[in-house]
Amino acid sequence: MFFSFEGIDGSGKSTQARLLADALRQRGLDVVEVREPGGTELGERIRALLLNPEADINGRAELLLFSAARAQLVSAVVRPALARGAVVIADRFHDSATAYQGAGRGLANPDWLAALHRFATFDTLPARTYFVDVDLETAEARRGDRASDRMEREGQDYFERIRTAYLRIAAEEQARVCTLDGRAPVDEIQATVLTDAVRHLS
Ligand code: ADP
Ligand code: TYD
């Protein structure tokens, strides 16, 4: 079973991804956690390039680099894990590219992007996606003083377009995407996610 977590930077999705992984491991399941971009040697190198505040990267190159990192992650880690029956939990996956590059950078129409995602992921898409939704102010406060990477240096409009895109994806794909109120306490969100995940696993 393949789960992904999505949300704007500072939404709390990494916290939830980790907690779900821990809870499922405690139940004896084989769980593989991955983060995007990254998770392979090539992916971590691409991550360093993409997040470097000094880097000059145009939007098209950015989309293709995120897609390249994803293709490597899927072939080297995600597909082998799923093939042996493990649960894979991804901290960000293809919806991040739809929201950040598609809407945030204003690149490509949804049909074109969907085809790119299928290509880059070898048609391996999450069965269930948890979208942790918070307002921009809450996310910014949670990011706090943490040093901004290249992606986080954009203004409010950019993050607003990304959040709107996530809300649209959630509305269009209700069978896959579960939206969570990210302003709720960590434990409360976790309980909702765990109940939902266990239901999907059985
Ligand atoms: P993201 O992966 O979305 O950037 P993180 O999971 O790293 O977000 O969380 C960002 C910060 O917010 C961390 O300091 C984390 O402890 C805190 N945090 C996460 N979830 C919540 C929550 N539900 N309520 C309050 N603080 C939270
Ligand atoms: P990261 O430090 O992992 O952010 P977070 O803690 O919020 O998950 O940085 C990943 C950044 O890359 C984040 O700003 C979102 C962005 N991103 C894209 O723009 N497109 C993508 O396809 C992916 C996977 C991430």
Write a brief structural summary.
The protein contains 8 helices and 5 strands. It is α/β, with parallel strands linked by helices and 202 residues long. The chain has one domain (2-201): P-loop containing nucleotide triphosphate hydrolases (Rossmann fold), CATH 3.40.50.300.
Give an overview in words.
The protein has helices at 13-26, 41-51, 59-83, 94-104, 110-120, 136-143, 156-172, 186-201; strands at residues 2-6, 31-35, 87-91, 128-133, 177-181. Helix 3 (59-83) runs antiparallel to helix 4 (94-104) and helix 4 runs antiparallel to helix 5. The protein has a five-stranded parallel beta sheet, sandwiched between helices. The chain has a single domain, classed as Rossmann fold. It is α/β, with parallel strands linked by helices and 202 residues long. The mean pLDDT is 95. The chain is built from eight helices and five strands. Bound molecules: adenosine-5'-diphosphate and thymidine-5'-diphosphate. Thymidine-5'-diphosphate binds at residues 9, 14, 36-37, 51, 66, 92, 96-97, 100-101, 149, 151-152.
